[in-house]
Write a structure and sequence with these properties.
By secondary structure, this protein is α/β, with parallel strands linked by helices. The chain has helices at about 15-25, 30-45, 55-70, 115-120, 165-170, 185-195, 225-230, 240-250, 290-305, 315-335, 340-345, 350-365, 370-390, 415-425, 430-435, 465-475; strands at about 50, 80-85, 125-130, 140, 145, 175-180, 195-200, 210-215, 220-225, 235-240, 275-280, 310-315, 395-400, 440-450, 450-460. An 11-stranded mixed sheet has the order 1-3-2-6-10-7-14-15-13-11-12, with helices on both faces. Strands 4-5 form a two-stranded antiparallel sheet. Strands 8-9 form a two-stranded antiparallel ribbon. It is globular and about 60 Å long. About 55% of the residues are buried.
Length: about 475
């Protein structure tokens, strides 16, 4: 007689599995939340991925979720499932510190729109994920909460700015996490830690939050979101599986006209049943890929071909190169206005990183780009959006690296302007996408040198489903590995 394998611990199960089991009463939300809390207690002291943990609050929410199941109430798609939120996003009753001591003031009075959507889906909000100060770096360390480690290799970044989210997912602390992305802050941490990250089309998931008020040495100040944050930044999910990421994206899709780029209705699936062609873009001619990055692209292309996708080397390098170059202009020039505040209240890491990052951008655009160059940059951005959408449409998805390097060594951005320039060049796939507002998915493809290596799939505007379909094929053929603890 065959011996049945013991069921996986609840913290190991996917969000899709947990939601179904809670809905049917096979398990309780309290059991799931307690399993995640036990896993947090086991792993978080080493990784420092989740901060501002309130077990009693989460368990009370789980008890209410179970009572709703017992009463036969209508249940949301994530009913009773634990989800973490990021310290730069408002969650009612919690401080939105953004990793800055001076911002650790009164708790938020209401949820950001994306957090409200997750809460309304029935999820149990469990823990706040760490980020760098001002959510600026591709690392996740700050003076308020300390350093987050990569569970695969503590000497490598877990990514940033959603590094706490990616590290906690890889370790099994929660099945889902909320993050945000203006320069790879969802997609890069996902790749560094071997999980899935979805950057939606700008406007699909509401980025609305009220302005930030802060006490500075010079008195009260209000921080309004700069234009690039409004036009290029997105909220989105990180998950351990593509199916979970798809579910979380559906939940987070929030038609909201308070968002200056918000859309009034949720987009549907692109019409047509044929598989899109896959355009493989290995590089843009400015930096050489690590061999493992090329191996990840080859593995992803092979799996897609075997699943019936037509894969072809595609000439989009010049367009993506120009978009990445514009990112170094528009993002940094928008951020320049925050430099005095960063100098006043930022930690040493953000101040040093910012100094070297501006030096790297100066290699591309000069020491102080002119107002004319800035205005022309925004104009050119609009033209590039149209050109890329024409290339992609509903019939093509691009396959690119996540970065030209393996996950950066911790604090690589503090080593000097030359290393900062190398990093900026290596991160062209992360920079090109947000400056144009397109959707992209980061999915693990291979493991090498003890590290996960991911690839990126870029779809046409509001065609996230096409990228997720292709990501599912890549995931299905990838090794199912988890860091050891």
């Amino acid at each position: 007689m065959e011996t049945q394998k013991p069921a996986a611990p609840l913290w190991q199960r996917s969000a899709v599995e947990l939601a179904a089991a809670i809905r049917t009463g096979d398990v309780s939300s309290v059991e799931v939340v307690q399993s995640c809390l036990d896993r947090i207690e086991e792993t978080n002291p080493r990784l420092n991925a989740l901060v501002d943990l309130r077990p009693d609050e989460a368990l009370a929410d789980a008890h209410r979720a179970d009572a709703a199941v017992a009463a036969g109430e209508r249940l949301g798609p994530l009913h009773g499932v634990p989800v973490s939120t990021k310290i730069n996003t408002d969650q009612r009753g919690h401080v939105t510190s953004n990793g800055v001591v001076a911002l650790a003031g009164p708790p938020a009075k209401e949820d950001a729109a994306c957090v409200a959507a997750v809460r309304d889906s029935g999820a149990v909000l469990l823990g706040r994920s760490n980020s760098p100060a001002f959510s600026y770096r591709w690392f996740s360390t700050n003076d308020l909460h300390g350093r987050t480690l990569n569970p695969w290799d503590p000497d490598r970044t877990p990514g940033g700015s959603s590094g706490g989210a990616s590290s906690s997912l890889a370790a099994g602390m929660t099945p889902l996490a909320q993050g945000n992305d203006i320069g790879g802050s969802i997609r890069y941490p996902a790749a560094c830690c071997g999980v899935v990250g979805v950057r939606p089309t700008v406007g699909r998931v509401s980025g609305w939050m009220p302005p930030v008020h802060i006490e500075t040495p010079e008195g009260p100040a209000r921080l309004d979101f700069p234009l690039t944050a409004q036009a290029c930044a997105v909220e989105g999910p990180l998950a351990r599986t593509v199916a979970d990421a798809r579910l979380a994206l559906d939940v987070m899709t929030t038609p909201d006209l308070r968002d200056p780029f918000g859309i009034p209705v949720a987009p549907g699936r692109p019409a047509g049943g044929t598989k899109p062609r896959i355009g493989l873009v290995r590089d843009i001619g400015t930096v050489r890929n690590h061999p493992a990055v090329d191996a990840a692209l080859d593995a992803a292309a092979t799996r897609l071909s075997a699943a019936g996708y037509e894969v072809e080397e595609f000439e989009a390098a010049s367009l993506l190169a120009e978009a990445a170059r514009l990112w170094a202009l528009l993002i940094y020039e928008d951020f320049r206005g925050m430099v005095p505040l960063v100098e006043q209240v930022g930690d040493e890491g953000i101040r040093t990183s910012l100094q070297y990052s501006f030096a790297a951008a100066a290699d591309v655009w000069g020491e102080r780009p002119s107002l004319e160059a800035y205005i022309q940059g925004w104009a050119r951005r609009g033209s590039l959006i149209g050109e890329l959408q024409e290339l992609l449409g509903a019939g093509r998805v691009l396959l690119t690296p996540v970065a030209a390097e393996l996950p950066f060594e911790q604090d690589a951005d503090l080593k000097g302007p030359e290393r900062a320039s190398e990093m900026l060049a290596a991160m062209w796939p992360m920079a090109a996408v947000p400056i144009l507002g397109f959707p992209a998915v980061s999915v693990p493809a291979v493991h090498t040198e003890g590290l996960p290596v991911g690839v990126q799939l870029i779809a046409g505007r509001f065609a996230e489903e096409l990228a997720l379909d292709a990501a599912q094929v890549i995931e299905d053929g990838a090794p199912r590995l988890a860091p050891s603890f």
